[in-house]
Design brief:
This protein folds into two domains: 12-226, TIM Barrel, CATH 3.20.20; 230-287 and 300-327, no CATH class. Helix content is 41%, strand content 11%. The protein has helices at 22-25, 38-43, 65-74, 86-89, 99-114, 130-133, 142-158, 171-179, 191-214, 237-259, 265-271, 282-286, 328-340, and strands at residues 17-19, 79-83, 118-124, 164-169, 221-226, 230-232, 292-296, 301-303. It starts with 16 loop residues before the first strand and ends in a 6-residue tail after the last helix.
């Protein structure tokens, strides 16, 4: 049985929107002064992408901007979330700014506003300049400072015409998939590095919010996290303990420092020597007031000490990625977050 909803069943102030990320759509990877990103480098390595594709052309959004904006408008949505490609506006992640890159995003923002579509800007959706990666990437604390400088320049150029600014999209993905499991760029497989990367991402978020507000920024500022409710696959003590730990790794590892000013003790104990190095004052910087918290929800997860880690209820539909279609999980997740945290608007 399926249930359909009409637009009229939503509140009149419900904000309908669509979203993309720069590397997934822009293409023009070698055009107008754009520098290489870690995803360009990752996709060039044999075997990393199943079909050998890359973002070299992608949807060619860079060259099809006006037509793409017309397509967005034709959907009748009122907002569009996009990300700026750091290497398009600053090829090396430090040094001179690329005027052609900023011109593209200026035309994008102006085109959205002309069409009555609110621009929601994300500063970082995973495409770190490769030049910074070659100096240690997010594992190098210097990258934090470069990111703050980049964020301030983007705000200076575009801040008068966008609706909100999010610092990072899904730091768990960058940290764990990119640096522990190695299945996303930059393709590293080291747990200690992964959690140091995660700490630096959160630190760069907090320092960016502080710096933007010191510059007089009045825009709503926040961060976007991927989260899901995690349940034990069985009622065994081992599976229940595993589900609690996995919740700590996926949810609390980011929510606790952002909203409580510390990392969860159970995950710190689990990591042991792989816990990140935290300098004095870091946690206070991370815990900057959030104007909003973005939640990306895909499905629920089950934890098990056996295999597989992810299971779903037999008979429920799944996506092409074999993720269970379980919309009730969003309600379950938000209710839990409301219970455990003092939340900003979501």
């Amino acid at each position: 049985m399926t249930t359909s909803l009409s637009r009229q069943q939503f509140p009149v102030d419900f904000l309908w929107g669509v979203a993309t990320s720069s590397y997934q759509i822009e293409g023009a990877a070698n055009t107008d002064g754009r520098g290489p990103s870690i995803w360009d480098h990752f996709c060039d390595q044999p075997g990393t992408i199943a079909d050998g594709s890359s973002g070299l052309v992608a949807c060619d959004h860079y060259h099809r901007l006006e037509a793409d904006l017309d397509l967005i408008q034709s959907l009748g949505v009122m907002s569009y979330r996009f990300s700026v490609a750091w290497p398009r506006v600053q090829a090396l992640g430090s040094g001179p700014w690329n005027e052609a890159g900023f011109d593209f995003y200026s035309r994008l923002v102006d085109g959205l506003n002309r069409r009555g579509i609110q621009p929601y800007l994300t500063l970082y959706h995973w495409d770190l300049p490769q030049a910074l990666q070659e100096r240690g990437g997010w594992a190098n604390r210097e990258t934090v400072g470069h990111f703050v400088e980049y964020a301030l320049e983007v705000y200076r150029r575009l801040g008068d015409r966008v609706t909100t600014i999010a610092t990072h999209n899904e730091p768990w993905v960058v940290s764990i998939l990119g640096h522990e499991l190695g299945i996303f760029a930059p393709g590293l497989k080291d747990r200690k590095t992964a959690y140091q990367v995660g700490h630096h991402l959160l630190l760069s978020h907090g320092l960016t919010l502080k710096a933007l507000r010191e510059q007089g920024c009045q825009l709503p500022l926040g961060i976007v996290l991927n989260q899901s409710p995690i349940y034990p696959a069985t009622d065994s003590l081992a599976d229940r303990e595993k589900a609690l730990l996995d919740d700590g790794i996926v949810v609390r590892w980011y929510m606790d420092p952002l909203l409580k000013g510390h990392y969860p003790e159970d995950v710190v104990a689990f990591l042991g020597d792989d816990s990140p190095e935290v300098a004095p004052g870091d946690m206070e910087q991370i815990r900057q007031p959030l104007d909003f918290l973005g939640i990306n929800y895909y499905t629920r997860n089950f934890s098990s000490t056996g295999e597989p880690w992810d299971v779903h209820t037999p008979g429920n539909p799944v996506t092409e990625m074999n993720w269970e279609v379980y919309p009730a999980g969003l309600t379950e997740l938000l209710a839990r977050l409301h219970q455990d945290f003092f939340l900003p608007p979501i």
